[in-house]
Automatic annotation (TrEMBL):
<dbReference type="InterPro" id="IPR045857">
    <property type="entry name" value="O16G_dom_2"/>
</dbReference>
<dbReference type="InterPro" id="IPR017853">
    <property type="entry name" value="GH"/>
</dbReference>
<protein>
    <recommendedName>
        <fullName>alpha-glucosidase</fullName>
        <ecNumber>3.2.1.20</ecNumber>
    </recommendedName>
</protein>
<dbReference type="Pfam" id="PF00128">
    <property type="entry name" value="Alpha-amylase"/>
</dbReference>
<dbReference type="InterPro" id="IPR006047">
    <property type="entry name" value="GH13_cat_dom"/>
</dbReference>
<feature type="domain" description="Glycosyl hydrolase family 13 catalytic">
    <location>
        <begin position="47"/>
        <end position="442"/>
    </location>
</feature>
<keyword id="KW-0732">Signal</keyword>
Length: 591
């Protein structure tokens, strides 16, 4: 389809962008306070995995100065908020999610001065920095744990300790049948203390005891410390694991496996999603709001990670009494419940259920990959990248992008056992490690076709670079007229339109394989996203979803393999037999 954009339409699009910019400027000057409080509501949060983003000192490990050097790339792309996976002092058993000092920077990543410089440059570029807050556990090398193991006064109950019991063979056993998420018993014997300690993840990550008010105070102090450093909020890790049954009751068997060491062996009714989690989240939200009220400036926000029941998650937003929790709990349904076999009905169902259950006057969010799960290109197919980014960016609310998804990076699934470092993978051994390893999704960012994809000049990087980097990298995509990256940039620009920021959302299944998302706002042109979820060409009748008085569609964003160019005008006579190529998606203005 090569109907080129008319001069009239070109002017219309330019005017549309100018009006959006003017409206934003007017709002900025007239309602600074409102915008400061609501900056996050339509933001794209760009997740950086610092260890794999950019290496500034050629040791093969990404670092803060590497991130600093690439902030201009984020600004050029249009990113205004970035979330950094953990950068704190750590033995790196779980690559930063085992923290030994919550107020220090890990030496491989740099210094506190580097971090302060990063914050200053981010502020200059109008990029907000969100830190990964890991409250459920610390490292076993944390001073708190060492003091708790020694029963030092004030720290005796900082962690979850329990006596074991003697079995019929006269051997000491853990207190109950709880398993670690990372395989094996969730209990480890501590000879100095003479008790078992509880850890939902690795043995080197003992769980903190949030039934102890001193732990809550210590973590409040950590939050305030980083707020004082200038961060704009936190992504809170594994929040639904914060509390466990104080009676330490055995969990019922799930029937899913006979492997007693597997996390699937029991139903986790006593170690996950306990109601006390809500109060902890409401407490932290109150802390953030009070800090913002006291110190001024933009709202400090909290977004939470929990793979949990939908209804449970919805009460994170707020409870029946109006107590507020995180600004948004991560929505993983497009990640966990969508696969290459999903069709249009599955997509619409999973999108609609979040919008249906979400309390009114709250903000939706959409996540399609992260550092723990397969990338879009690997999970849904390399041809789906543009379509999924179009979906992510045209749905209402917050969009979350994992670094590399803007260029269609793929998982490196052939990492050898010798190069594997992920704890769950190492725990299950060389025969099964590929089934659980997260290393394939954490490989270095592919900046260019140079050595190590431009990530590092080291002879060996902490994880191997994907071998496809010479063909798939940012530098090449920037040089092309049409690429995944250019599509992504167009989508970020599109999100600035009032209809995208404030418009209502309607989803419709046109056929088993094609669905639409329509954004509409009174006084503004509506935006239509059309997506083919299948590997085959589809013909659909757009008259089923468009009013009969609509004269044409104008393509605003199209993918790298699309038969439609940006600016193509699609007249009404083409609506009835509209063609979409495999995995194709379009974003169009309705006229």
């Amino acid at each position: 389809m090569n109907r080129k954009m008319s001069n009239q339409m070109r002017v219309a699009l330019q005017t549309m962008a100018a009006l959006a910019s003017a409206e934003s400027s007017e709002e900025a000057s007239n309602a600074v306070g409102d915008i400061d409080n609501e900056w996050w509501k339509t933001a794209v949060f760009y997740q950086i995995y610092p260890r794999s983003f950019m290496d500034s000192n050629d040791d093969g490990i990404g670092d803060l100065r590497g991130v600093l050097s690439k902030l201009s790339y984020l600004a050029e792309t249009g990113i205004t908020a970035t979330w950094l996976s953990p950068i704190f002092q750590s033995p790196m058993i779980d690559f930063g999610y085992d923290i030994s000092d919550f107020k220090a920077i890990h030496e491989e990543y740099g210094t506190m001065e580097d971090f302060e410089e990063l914050i200053a440059e981010a502020n200059r570029l109008n990029i907000k920095i969100i830190l990964d807050f890991v409250p459920n556990h610390s490292s076993d090398q944390c001073e708190w744990f060492i003091k708790s193991a020694a029963r030092e006064e004030g720290y005796e109950d900082f962690y979850v300790w329990a006596d074991g019991h003697i079995n019929e063979d006269g051997e000491m056993e853990p207190p109950n049948n709880w398993q670690s998420v990372f395989y094996g018993s969730a209990w480890t014997w501590h000879p100095e203390r003479g008790q078992y300690y509880y850890h939902q993840f690795t043995a080197e990550q003992p769980d903190l005891n949030y039934r102890n008010s001193k732990v809550v105070e210590a973590m409040d102090d950590v939050i305030t410390f980083w707020l004082d450093k200038g961060v704009s909020g936190f992504r809170v890790d594994a929040v639904n694991h914060l509390f466990e049954d104080p009676e330490l009751r055995d969990e019922p068997l799930s029937g899913k496996t006979q492997d007693k060491s597997s996390h699937l062996y029991t139903e986790h009714i006593y170690t996950k999603d306990l109601p006390e989690v809500y109060d902890m989240l409401y407490h932290w939200r109150n802390l953030l709001d009070e800090y913002t009220e006291k110190h001024g400036g933009p709202a400090r926000i909290m977004m939470t990670e929990a793979y949990a029941d939908l209804k449970f998650l919805m009460d994170y937003y707020e409870n029946a009494d109006g107590s507020k929790g995180p600004h948004f709990p991560f929505n993983f349904f497009l990640l966990t419940d969508i696969s290459q076999t999903s069709d249009a009905r599955d997509y619409v169902f999973n999108i609609q259920k979040w919008l249906t259950y979400m309390p009114r006057n709250h903000v939706a969010n959409w996540v399609m990959s992260n550092h723990d799960n397969p990338r879009i290109a690997s999970r849904l197919g390399v041809d789906s990248v543009d379509a999924m980014n179009m979906l992510l960016m045209t749905l209402p609310g917050v969009a979350v992008t994992y670094n590399g998804d803007e260029i269609g990076m793929q998982d490196f699934r052939d990492i050898s056992w010798e190069d594997t470092v992920d704890p769950p993978a190492r725990n299950v051994g060389p025969d099964k490690y590929k089934e659980v390893s997260r290393d394939p999704v954490r490989t270095p960012f592919q900046w260019s076709g140079e050595k190590n994809a431009g990530f590092s000049n080291a002879d060996k990087t902490w994880l191997p670079v994907h071998p496809n980097y010479e063909e798939l990298n940012l530098e090449i995509q920037k040089s092309l007229e049409k690429s995944h990256y250019s599509v992504y940039k167009d989508l970020i620009e599109l999100r600035k339109l009032p209809v995208m920021e404030q418009g209502r959302t309607a989803l419709e299944v046109i056929s088993r394989n094609v669905f639409t998302v329509t954004r509409s706002l009174k006084g503004h042109s509506s935006i239509l996203t059309i997506i083919n979820t299948s590997d085959e060409e589809q013909m659909v009748n757009l008259l089923e979803v468009l009013d009969e008085d609509i004269k044409q569609l104008t393509v605003l964003v199209s993918g790298v393999n699309s038969i439609y160019d940006k600016g193509t005008e699609i007249p009404q006579e083409d609506f009835e037999h509209f063609i979409l190529t495999p995995q194709e998606a379009l974003v169009c203005m309705i006229e």
